[in-house]
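Bumping my old thread because nobody answered last time. Still need a sequence for this structure:
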């Protein structure tokens, strides 16, 4: 039996040596893979750093080339004065007493549709448009679900807001309510 025990112990030692050799080989492969990954990361970092340095060099040379020394020319000063005068005229026009706010008009028209035109628009256009808008909105809300009406409203309400702004600007320019949609008839009457 001692021979059998010795054979078993020898086999066990051989298996143990084999497992240890296999573990050592796996550890060596793992260390080699880790070293390869570290090397790749270092290479990527070096490439990123080199790219950043090249980009910084390009940007700095472009800035030097693009930024000429500022010089004031008489045309520049004259253009600035003309622009300032125009801005002052626009500011004065918007600040007139009794003028309609184009911001309010645009927001009201965008929120309430043509009913918002009553703020600054011609009553001859805004009252019928408001009545039609309310009737159509009432009927459409009874017939169609809201999710089908939303795309239509997302187009119609901003257009109404633009019309409201145009009404307010026309009011401020003329000093009275002006019509937007009958310009052709008005001109024909003036010329005839």
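Sorry it took so long. Here it is:
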């Amino acid at each position: 039996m001692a021979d059998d025990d010795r054979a078993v112990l020898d086999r066990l030692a051989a298996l143990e040596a084999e497992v240890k050799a296999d573990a050592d080989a796996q550890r060596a492969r793992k260390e080699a893979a880790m070293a390869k990954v570290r090397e790749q990361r270092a290479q990527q970092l070096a490439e990123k750093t080199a790219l950043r340095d090249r980009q910084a060099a390009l940007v700095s040379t472009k800035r030097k080339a693009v930024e000429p020394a500022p010089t004031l020319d008489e045309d520049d000063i004259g253009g600035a004065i003309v622009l300032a005068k125009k801005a002052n005229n626009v500011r004065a026009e918007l600040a007139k007493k009794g003028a309609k706010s184009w911001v309010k008009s645009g927001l009201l028209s965008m929120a309430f549709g043509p009913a918002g035109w009553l703020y600054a628009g011609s009553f001859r256009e805004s009252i019928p448009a408001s009545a039609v808008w309310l009737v159509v909105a009432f009927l459409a809300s009874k017939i169609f679900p809201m999710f089908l009406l939303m795309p239509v409203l997302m187009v119609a309400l901003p257009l109404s807001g633009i019309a409201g702004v145009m009404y307010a600007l026309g009011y401020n320019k003329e000093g009275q309510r002006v019509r937007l949609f009958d310009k052709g008839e008005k001109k024909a009457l003036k010329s005839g």
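Residues 187-192 have pLDDT under 50 and may be disordered. Let me know if any region looks off to you.
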